[in-house]
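This part of the workshop introduces the protein records we will be handling. Getting from the letters to the tokens is the skill we practise here. The record below serves as our worked example for the rest of this section.

…
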Amino acid sequence: MGLELYLDLLSQPCRSIYIFARSNNIPFEFKHVELFKGPSNSEGAGKVSLLKKVPALKDGDFTLAECTAILLYLSRKYNTPDHWYPSDIQKRAQVDEYLSWHHANIRANAPKTMWIKVLIPLFTGQPLPSEKLQEVMEGLSTSLKQFEERFLQDKAFIIGNEISLADLVAIVELMQPVGVGCDIFEDRPRLMEWRRRVEDAVGKELFFQAHEMILNIKELSNIQIDPQLKEHLAPVLMKMLK
């Protein structure tokens, strides 16, 4: 049995794994999961991941969940180029540092733009007040300032002259606001140049293929959401209106 990756490309972590595997010519079977279509559509991922969510990996009898764990597993098993997760202990520590910072900063803010502008109205039938988006954008702006000043600085990539897992995890997250019309790269030339370098490093065709769904997010309003999922999530999302 070969490598299977269970992914929904609306998910930022799933996109990072998809791009990483494709750009490194790692052979895998793409198991497309559409989470918004309900449990039946994600049944395969549920059998693979005890956490019953994507991304999920199945390699023979071995299964694995969580984005960072999967990226590191793939980099080690397939001996990908050293720049992704450097053998140099200090450069590797820099990648680890960014990945640790990322979750409480970029990831804590960027995805909320899609929830506020698209998903909450879709699930609840109620638009959120503009103040909610402004609040999130202010938090994201603070994180982006720290990202540029602390991590990017005047370098081509986060840890130097070559792309790493840190850049990949960061870029997929920052494309989430772009998909809903919040162009965070506008008026940030250093950030925009970094984005272009990341696109070139992984290949523009692959980059935009992976982000096709998020860049056409308005089409999400046309999908049929599983009624049970909608009933379950709507009350949770309504709390975010307050």
